[in-house]
Every structure is written in structure tokens, then in C-alpha cells.
Amino acid sequence: MTIHNLYIFSKNGILLYYAEWNRLNKSGITKAEEAKLMYGMLFSIKSFVSKISPLDPKEGFLYYKTSKYTLHYFETPSGLKFVLNTDNVTQNARELLQQLYREVYLEYVVKNPLCQLNEPIQSELFKLKVDELFKKSPLFLSRSI
């Protein structure tokens, strides 16, 4: 199982945080352009899912899978969006994203008076804790494919 990269977006689409571990293919565009494309795609998929869902779309969009990777999505009630790209073997990444929100984001961003909400996260402690959480997860495996 491999975790490739992580995006955290604000309610308004501002890229608050980005990290990558085992990303082999670079996009060839700037991180800002990539973030805008990712947020736009998420916005479109969420809208599409809510419109065509035959059932109550309370949960809405959770993930999508391609032949090469899976994109896992978790949105908080306040509108924060957590996006994790993994290999296709990885399952239950939603639990890891919820843990990231509860144990790292709330503790090291929300409760940190030096962090401004809805601004890119600069805290080195937050970055360290994200890295620790992901590397101790059974979903994380550092390998070259």
C-alpha cells in the first residue's frame, strides 16, 4: 500500500497544505495551478454526484478510482477538504483522513494561536505531525514502483 500525496483545502478553495511522499509522476505545472485544477475537479464531481444520486446524497462523494491510483476525499462540516491519493490497494483511507483532522489539524492548527485559519499552514510542528501520522499508518509504504 502506498500513499502518494495529500491536499488540504479551505472551504473557499485555498490550498492550506500539500505534502507528497511517493509521487513518481510530476504534473509539469506549478503547485498553485495543480491545486486549482484539483479543487475545480472536486467541486465538479461533488456537484455531479449530488445531482445524479438516486438516493439521498448525504455522504456524497467519498473517492474515485482509476487504473493507477485512488483519490480519497473527506470534507468536514466546516467545509475543510482533505484529499489523499494512494495506490489502488489502499482501503479505508477515509479513517486516516478523519484521524488527521481530529488528532493533527484540530490540535496543531485550530488550537494554535499562531496559525491563521484559511491561510496556508506554515507550522513546522503541524508538518512534522502529519508526516508522523502518515508514516506510522499501515497504509504507508515507501517503495518505488
CATH topology: Beta-Lactamase
Helix tally equals 3
Shape: globular
Terminal Cα separation, in Å? 11 Å
Q: Give the second-level CATH assignment, the architecture.
A: 2-Layer Sandwich
Number of strands: 5
Helix content: 25-40%
The proportion of strand residues reads 15-25%
Q: Sheet with the most strands?
A: 5 strands, antiparallel
| Count of folded domains | 1
Largest beta sheet: what is the strand line-up?
2-1-5-4-3
Order of helices and strands: EEHEEEHH
Q: Can you tell me the residue ranges where pLDDT is under 50 for at least 5 consecutive residues?
A: none
CATH class: Alpha Beta
Give the rounded overall mean pLDDT.
86
Radius of gyration: 15 Å
Based on secondary structure, the structural category is alpha+beta
Protein name: Trafficking protein particle complex subunit
Subunit structure: Part of the multisubunit transport protein particle (TRAPP) complex. The heterodimer TRAPPC6B-TRAPPC3 interacts with TRAPPC1 likely providing a core for TRAPP complex formation.
Subcellular location: Endoplasmic reticulum; Golgi apparatus, cis-Golgi network
Pfam families: Sybindin (PF04099)
What do you see in this structure?
The chain has 145 residues and is of the alpha+beta class. 37% of the residues lie in helices and 19% in strands. The chain is built from three helices and five strands. Helix 2 (93-110) packs antiparallel against helix 3 (124-136). The longest helix has 22 residues, at 31-52. The mean pLDDT is 86. It is found in: Endoplasmic reticulum; Golgi apparatus, cis-Golgi network. Belongs to the TRAPP small subunits family. BET5 subfamily.
